[in-house]
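re: ur question from earlier - yeah i can do the single chain one, its not a big deal. heres the input i used so u can compare w yours
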Amino acid sequence: MKKMVLWFGLGVLILSPPAAHAQGTPADWMDAALENALKKMQVYETVAPEERVDFSRNGFALYGGVFEQGDNMTQEVTLSGGVDYLFLGGGDPSVIDTDIFVRTLAGDLACPKCKDTQEDSTPIIFFSPQETGRFVIDLQLFQSQEGRDSYLVLLILKRIPATGAVAQASPADWMDQALEDALKNMRLISAEIEELDFTRNGFAVYGGLYEQGDTMSQEISLSGDISYVFLAGGDKDVLDSNLFVRTPSGGLACAKCEDVEPDSYPIVVFTPSATDRFVIALELRSSQGGEDAYLVLLILKRMG
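and the output i got, formated as C-alpha cells:
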C-alpha cells in the first residue's frame, strides 16, 4: 500500500491510507452527489447511443458545494459557439429538488429552455450558444429532506458524435477517479490529524480535464483567520500536479502557498489575516505518456 507524505504546517507526516471509508462524513456526501450526477451522464449515453458526452475543456467542468435549502451558487464560464452543451446537476440522498439555470451576464435566460425547475434531484439543460461568450450557470437547492444542508455538484459537458467502439473507461469514470483520489486524502487527514469540512462561501470542489502543462485557476473569497486546506487529486495518469494560492496580482499569498513537489497529491495550508479575494491555481505538470488527465481541487477548512 502506497504511503503518502503530507506537509500540514507542523511537520512532515508519513501516513498510510485507512483500510475503509468512514460513513456519513462530508467526503461521503460529496462523493454521493457526484455519483448521482455521473449516473445521469451515463444514462444519457444509453438513451442516445449515437452520441457521447465529454467534459468541457474551456476550464473547470465540475463544481461542487454545500448548500442550505434555498441557496444558489453561480459560476461564470466561457462557452464556445456552435458546441452542444449539457449541464447536469446531482445531489446527495437528502436532496429532493435542485434546479439549474443558464443565464447571460445581464441575468436573462440564455435561451427559452435554459432552465430546469422540475421537481427532481438531477436537473439537465441542453444549450448550444450561437457565438462564443461568457455565461452564468446558476445551481440552486430548492428543497431538501427536513430542510437540511445538502451537497450538490454541477457538470459542464459537451455532446460529441459516437465513433468506433466504446472505450472500457468513460470520462465519467476518470472524473470519478480524480474526485475519489482527492477525497481519499481528505479522509486521511480528517482521520489521522484533524477534522476537515468543505468551505461554505461558494463552490468548494473544482474539477477539469487537463492537457499536460495546463493550469486552471479560480478566484474565490477567503475569510480572515480561518485555516484553509487546499488539496488535489487526479486519475491514474497523473504523475505530478502543482497547487498555488496567489493574490489577484499574481504573487504568492504566503511563503508556503505553493506545493511543487513531484507528486500527484499537492496540498497547501493557508490562514489569511483578513477576508479578501485570492486565486487558486492547479497545474498538471506531467502525466503518463503525456496523456490528458482529470484533476480535482478541494477547498476545505480545518475544524480544530
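The chain has two domains: 26-161, 172-302. not sure if urs matches, ping me
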